[in-house]
Structures
1.
Amino acid sequence: MSTRPWIAAGFLLPALLLLGALVAYPIVYSLYRSFFGASGDGFVGLDNYAEVFSGDRLTAVKNTLVWVIVAPSVATAFGLVFAVLTERVRWGTAFKMVVFMPMAISMLAAGIIFGLVYQQDPDRGVANAVWVGVHDTFTESSAWPGARPRPTSDLAASGGGAFTTKSAAEGSGTTDLPLVGVPPQDVAGAAEAAPAKPAGGSGADGAVTGTVWLDFTKGGGGKPGSIDPKEKALAGVTVEAVKDGEVVASAKTGDDGTYALPKEAEGAKLRLPSSNFAEAYNGVDWLGPSLVTPAIIASYIWMWAGFAMVLIAAGLAGISRELLEAARMDGANEWQVFRKVTVPLLAPVLSVVVVTLMINVLKIFDLVYIIAPSATQSDANVLALELYLSSFGGGANQGVGSAIAVVLLLLVVPVMIINIRRLRRENRR
């Protein structure tokens, strides 16, 4: 090269021209354009940069920092755990293949998949289907969500979603508790309501009896407050007897809607607690304002943990087993071997993975754009998405978009410098 520099220049010229057209010119022009307004005519100085770090766009800056800190570290941690745990199992290769498979899916496809996973409706969203299943396993669901008394009924709202009778229960007759507001399809298979036997009558099981039923006759007709033919019983409703603010007795209605309270209930007011009417648990709002960013980060980790695992597993294969065995012979347990031998030896590989993922995360755009619904897209916004929205997505302000591009470049440069220095140190070894 020292004797024929023109030959080297001839070979480098095509690459230099390509880099100049695709890299150097866009960087220089973006820097120039960032000092002009939306029309591109008026010079605005640093106003575009001030706008990036103010107002709603500040959320994009904060979210980008969260992404840079959380996503690469968590994905690398999962990759490290997967690589170490699968090293000794026979089916480790198959497991690694399954974990790595999401890498074959595009960001667009992954966004569509997780958009369905995070659906609010448990019948459609896998995440809420699992969450609701676990919740309902440990928490008893309400008997008749949405049921309520008629405005003219003896039952009245008593706070917290409960309903209490205005008058005290008497043991000489029955205290019937009619309700409405239950969709007919929900009681299609229920038994017909039966009048309760008076407490003093033959066959009565308690001092206070009554019936809880759906006071609605299909097709119209019937008398409000009375049990008409074919009206449906509301089974499983909890009825409490309350005296001086304390529950002295309680019972649940049977299949025919009847209940029986012991003698302690005489003279007490009857209350239907809110647990009878609470709406069914519908899961977590994964794509709501507070959880949309963690939910999208989780989808990113699902995709890129396999990438981290493969690189770390390759580095793990290069570690001398003699060092690990020597540590075990010196009395170190597996956790100590992992923490004081394996991780330090994998430090160069781990740094490569983290730096690579940090650069990748700074460019994240499609996952956020696809998964986040329009109502919470502003809460999940990141710089790359804001660049698109400001320049081409309706903002029509390429001055601000260029400023965001320059900010992203400035965020990437330190990571690149760290990576270059690390590579130079490796080459010196």
2.
Amino acid sequence: MTVPPATGRRERKKAATRQKIADTALRLFLERGYDAVGIREVAAEADVAVTTLFSHFASKEALVFEQDEDFEQRLTQAVTGRAPHAPLIPALRHEIEALVRHCTAAGAAPIWRMIDESPALRKYDESMRLRHAETLAAAIAADPELSLSLSPTASRTIARFVIDAYSLAREEADPEAALDEIFRMIEAAWDAAGPAPRASGTSGR
């Protein structure tokens, strides 16, 4: 269905406002320290009302993880948007690699130092990863093809492994090599969780 032009403009304006708020918050946090900056200061600096800020971000912590929802949606899309019988794990690895590249790009180190030094941000990061794992597990369990071969426990286990791959790899000196090692183990767990391969030599997963 074609989106009406007016709707497109509204969505672009909302996205621009959201990005402006997030960029402003991150700049202030890095300049003055996360705990030293309040929500009202962020809103004033971004030239928006506090209510507008909260319409885009549910909490102060969420301002630091502004791509949270986008990443969660991309993980779900990696499951639901696959071609029929396309393997799942490579599709998930593609999204994890993209996130790791984002989190290890130039300029990311000060942000992670800030997160590591803040108990509130560390707690939010942990809860966010748990939520991503549950969302991913639900998408796997809801897939008609995958649900035939995986138990709910297996779906949750694989999802946790995939999400943990991101946090482990981003801390390594060579994230790509770390992902190679981690995903070999995930593939082995994936193979062990499903039924025996079909006679054609493929599992159809």
